[in-house]
Input
Amino acid sequence: MAKAGETIKIKDITGRDVEVSVPVERVILGEGRQIYFTGALDTDAPFKRVVGWRDDFQKADLDGYNIYLQKFPEMAKIPTFGGMKDGTFDIEQAVALKPDVIIMNTEAKSATEESGYIEKLAKVGIPLVYIDFREKPMQNTDESMRIIGKLFGKEARSEEFVKFHDDQLARVTDTLAKAGDLKKPVVFMERAGGYSDDCCMSFGNENFGKMVELAGGINMAKDIIPGTFGAVNPEQIIASNPDQVIVTGSNWELYVPGGAWVGVGPGADKAKAEEKLAALMKRPAFTGIKAVTEGNVHAIWHQFYNSPYQFVAVQQIAKWLHPDLFADLDPEATFKELHERFLPVAYHTGYFASLKAGL
Output
């Protein structure tokens, strides 16, 4: 463990060696939803190091934002800025906030490099560290948590989180390994269904696509989408005739007011979510497919795709795909335990919805 004020070399998730004086006391979060990991390490005061953050938390997860705001009203005063990717990041504003480090997601890397931000920040002594819970989360979550643990001087806490994460994931993977030759259902994961009129965004062999495979399913779009994110056309869904459909959703009222998206998340209205989920299945790509006729249609909180909590999603997907095998697994209890042990806010149900009775 580094001594206070010591400058150490940290290898970030992209393999860059970055010199940082630790523990950092002033942090800029390149994404507001990075509070999901900040809250797990600085549980008593999740905003104590945050001097600036991107403005996406409220827009992308309105219910979660309001739960945090109620307990930590001071967060409304934290300066916000736009993103590297859309070119609205204000480097002068960032420098004025005098951060000890800026933490960025890997998807901002190419935009950051093209604009020369790393060099500009280096000139004024501000290091930038990349982490990843989105591009390859099943591969990079543990290491990303360890990197943040080093930055915050919370190595023991980050190891405790990593152990919980891995143990909970193993409850699915170990059970599947013991089950042997199991029939794997074909699953279509729709990313942000109803967010726009387009059909249909999905996942390649990473993120929710990888979660489906870990949960004992076959990701329908695995061989169609070459990267982590992409789209499939309605004809491909009809031809594949998936056994299960899982739609990601969140409260996107600030992005798409009154949209057809499924508002699952903390404190969500389950009946309303199921109603909107059923409505989405009336689109041409889904009418008559096996998943819909048999009622194997579900909705899951979109933000599992960009947080260190994906193991909860893997548990829930496993339960949907193999209800008998995972009859004793309770993903809600797992997420509740995560909140009680690691997070600064209380657990609220509402992260999942299903058209299958009893699930």
About this structure: The longest helix spans residues 155-179. The CA atoms of residues 185 and 217 lie 5 Å apart. The mean pLDDT is 94.
